[in-house]
């Protein structure tokens, strides 16, 4: 994940799969979405504007699935990086995900990794 300032091939593949599943879109559309998000993220200094949009538009179940997906991307590489975990925690907090759900999402993703 970009939290550790790099996205390796395994993480990129996992991210495309997560986006495809979460938004019910094709692999090609997921790649386009990822490219657009990366471009916008380069100009951003915080997470709030992104998480605010998600918080307003996603249901609780969708937010939970997003957190599971973020964990899946983090676990896709050779182990979990402390910066990735911190980033997911921050996103979870900004989406008002209870800590118990944050942990449950982590365990689900770890089991599936």
TrEMBL record:
Renumbered to this chain, the signal peptide range is: none
Q: Which Pfam families match?
A: TerB
CDD domains listed in its UniProt record: terB_like_2
Q: Co-chaperone DjlA N-terminal domain spans which residues?
A: 1-106
Among InterPro entries, the record links this protein to: DjlA_N, TerB-like
Name of this protein:
Co-chaperone DjlA N-terminal domain-containing protein
Q: Which organism is it from?
A: hydrothermal vent metagenome
Q: Lineage from the top down?
A: unclassified sequences, metagenomes, ecological metagenomes
